[in-house]
Structure formats: C-alpha cells, structure tokens
Recover the amino acids of this structure.
C-alpha cells in the first residue's frame, strides 16, 4: 500500500525535528553575543547575520527548521543576548517569543553618569546616551526640566524594566514618567522644582535620616537667604570625581580650592545643578524644610548621625570632637 504524500512529509518533518533537537549551532567556546534584528528583516537576512556572528553553523538548516516548525513567521525584531552554543530549536524559540525586558534597580544617590554606565553595561543603551542626551527634546512634555542642563536629579531611583538596545529618549521617558507619577505631587505650586530637586540631591548624599534632612534643608535655605556659602562636601566630591560618587577618593585640602560651579565653599548659592538622583524621602524633606536656630552641621563618621550647631564656635568644638579626634 502506498504511503500518502502528507504522511510522508509529516514523517520526514518529525524525523527532522527529532534530529535537530541535539544540533548545537555555535562554536565550542560558550560566549554571549548581542545581536539586533531590525524591523523588516527577512529570514534570509536574519540567517545571514547569525552566520556572520557564528551563532549558527548552517543558514540552510536554521531556515529549514524555522519554516518546518512555523516559528520563522513569528520572529520578532529587537535586541537579543545569545550564547554561541545555543541549539537551533532553542534559538528559534527565543526569536519567536521576542526580546525580554531586563529589570534594573537604581538606588537613591546614584548619579546620571553612574546610571548611564549601569544601563550601557547591560546593553540597554549605548555609552553616554543619557549623559549626552539633548534634554531640550523632552522639555515640552516635562515642563519641570526647564532650566535644567542634564537629566541629573530627575532619574527617579526605582526598579525599572528595559529592553536591550533601547532608544535613549525612550529610556529617559520611562524615568520621567515615574518622576511625574511619584515625585511631582510632592511639590506645591509655588515651589521652584529645579531648586528643590537640587537641594534634595544634597540632602540625599549628606544625610540619611528624614527628620535630620528637614532640619538641614531649613538650615541651607537660611544660608541661601542671607548669601552665606552652603559649604557642602558632597558637591566637592561630585566635581572631584567627574559626576560620580562610587569609587571616589576622600576630599583633600586642594579640592576645597578648586573653583568650579560645584564648589559651595567658594561660590554662593546652590551648585550648578543636582549632584545625584535623590529618592522620594529626600524630595519630601527638601520640600518641607524645618525651621530651627541651627546654622551648621556635620556628620559623625561612625554613627552617620548629623550633629547640628547654632554658632561657629559650637560647630568648631563639634568638629574637634567628631572629625579631628584620633
């Protein structure tokens, strides 16, 4: 009895699938490669790109498997991180499912440069995409950026999901939408948002406790009002290490003499811009400063507790107790 043509095709197809469940497509060395499938690419172009990257041994086998399983018609554009020893069945399954998002947690106090480095190391953006972004393109949709020169201070720390090879405007937009949702309601209509964010970034880097932040906010605003230098060490560190705190060495005497828009010992007023991306608590503290008789503060290196003083003489005594003792 003759075998039907349909049965023969099905049988051959099953044999084909069974054989290639064990077909590894890359070289012997396991490595991860980033590859982007642009929208509109056909199966031949995808197979050619994978062959060039040594992700498959045979374009014909890759295409045949994709067609037999029907997965080739489901391949989705986007960026993928693929290991060179992935099998044909697993590879086609990954492409049919589409790119996966990466979860990234940004902690309060992280700077724009540090976020840029984190996201680029994960292949979410290219290096310097956020640092060099023209934020004028965003000011129409996010009015609170008016007056800002960079995104520093507005990349609200939180956990985010991003696709690989994302556009910088899309990534920035995700941060700013979160700022709009969670931070913007904190501000009053009379608030200068950029100024408050600038102050909040200082509080984030200088003081851990919320109530102490409120006291420091009131103190710093008093200094601003009477044109007294803020004298904040964190702004010097930001300048010293080129917009980062991670891995930054301690301040030296010479750092206090460097004239820059971030030297709050030599220049009056707030620094040129925020010095980090502060959390919600720091924003709340900056937006609700607490009045007091204090004019000075320092941090105990051991306990991280903030020591406030009403007079310079009292402040100098506290410096001797907490900072100069051996």
């Amino acid at each position: 009895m003759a075998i039907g043509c349909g049965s023969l095709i099905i049988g051959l197809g099953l044999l084909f699938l069974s054989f290639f469940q064990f077909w590894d497509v890359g070289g012997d060395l396991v490595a991860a490669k980033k590859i982007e499938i642009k929208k509109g690419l056909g199966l031949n172009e995808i197979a050619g790109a994978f062959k060039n990257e040594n992700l498959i041994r045979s374009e014909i086998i890759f295409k045949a498997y994709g067609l037999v399983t029907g997965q080739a018609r489901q391949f989705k554009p986007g960026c993928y991180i693929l290991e060179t020893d992935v099998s044909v069945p697993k590879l086609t399954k990954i492409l049919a499912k589409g790119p996966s998002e990466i979860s990234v947690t940004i902690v309060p106090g992280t700077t724009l440069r540090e976020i840029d480095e984190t996201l680029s190391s994960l292949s979410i953006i290219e290096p310097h995409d956020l640092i060099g972004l023209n934020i004028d393109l965003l000011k129409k949709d996010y009015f609170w950026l008016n007056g800002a020169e960079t995104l520093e201070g507005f990349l609200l720390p939180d956990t985010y999901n991003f696709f690989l090879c994302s556009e910088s405007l899309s990534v920035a937009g995700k941060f700013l939408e979160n700022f709009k949702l969670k931070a913007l309601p904190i501000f009053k209509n009379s608030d200068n948002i950029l100024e408050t964010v600038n102050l909040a970034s200082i509080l984030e880097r200088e003081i851990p406790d919320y109530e102490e932040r409120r006291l420091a906010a009131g103190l710093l605003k008093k200094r601003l009002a009477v044109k007294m230098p803020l004298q904040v060490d964190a702004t010097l560190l930001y300048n010293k290490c080129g917009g980062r705190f991670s891995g930054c060495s301690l301040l030296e005497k010479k750092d206090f003499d460097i004239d820059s828009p971030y030297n709050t010992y030599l220049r009056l007023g707030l620094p040129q811009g925020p010095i980090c991306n502060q959390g919600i608590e720091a924003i709340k503290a900056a937006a609700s400063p607490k009045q007091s008789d204090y004019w000075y503060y320092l941090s105990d290196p051991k306990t991280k507790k903030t020591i406030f003083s009403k007079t310079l003489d009292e402040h100098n005594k506290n410096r001797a107790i907490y900072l100069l003792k051996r």
The domain at 22-97 is CATH 3.30.1490.480 (Dna Ligase; domain 1).
